[in-house]
């Protein structure tokens, strides 16, 4: 089924169009960048799935979202230093034949995530 994500800007009540992100595979010896992406008008990566079922392997992953850059681009005045710069979501994949959807709800001061469907 693969790996997907979706980001909603809870400050403005909109998808986080234009937010930049990155996907890493993490292991004891460090992390490997798998891809960088920019969210489309729906708050999703333009290519759809980040990894398809063939590319999704059991193990640990990290999604990193450039939250401060996104809100600055939206002309939100942030303190210096800002409260959230990047949001990193570390998660495990135990059954790669299942769909792993990792949404993010975010504002300049808070975030929430869960395993979606």
Major β-sheet annotation = 4 strands, mixed
CATH-defined architecture: Sandwich
Question: Total helix count?
Answer: 1
Broad shape: globular
Question: What is the helix/strand order?
Answer: EEEEEHEEE
Mean of pLDDT: 97
* Count of structural domains: 1
* Radius of gyration, whole Å: 14 Å
Task: Write the SSE topology.
Layout: E1 2-9, E2 14-15, E3 20-27, E4 30-38, E5 59-66, H1 67-73, E6 86-93, E7 99-106, E8 111-113
Parallel strand pairs: 1-7
Antiparallel strand pairs: 1-2, 3-4, 3-5, 5-6, 7-8
Report on this structure.
6% of the residues lie in helices and 46% in strands. The chain contains one helix and eight strands, in the order βββββαβββ. It is globular, with a radius of gyration of 14 Å. It has 117 residues and is mostly beta strands. It has a single domain, classed as Sandwich (Immunoglobulin-like). A hairpin with a 2-residue loop joins strand 3 and strand 4. The strands form two sheets. A four-stranded mixed beta sheet has the order 2-1-7-8, with no helix packed on it. A four-stranded antiparallel beta sheet has the order 4-3-5-6.
């Amino acid at each position: 089924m693969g790996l997907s994500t979706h980001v909603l800007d809870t400050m403005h009540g909109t998808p986080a169009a234009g937010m930049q992100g990155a996907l890493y595979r993490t292991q004891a010896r460090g992390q490997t960048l798998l891809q960088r992406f920019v969210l489309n008008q729906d708050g999703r990566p333009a290519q759809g799935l980040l990894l398809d079922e063939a590319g999704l392997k059991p193990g640990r992953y990290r999604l990193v979202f450039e939250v401060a850059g996104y809100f600055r681009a939206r002309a939100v005045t942030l303190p210096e230093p800002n409260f959230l710069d990047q949001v990193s979501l570390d998660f495990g994949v135990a059954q790669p034949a299942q769909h792993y959807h990792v949404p993010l709800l975010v504002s300049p001061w808070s975030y929430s995530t869960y395993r979606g469907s």
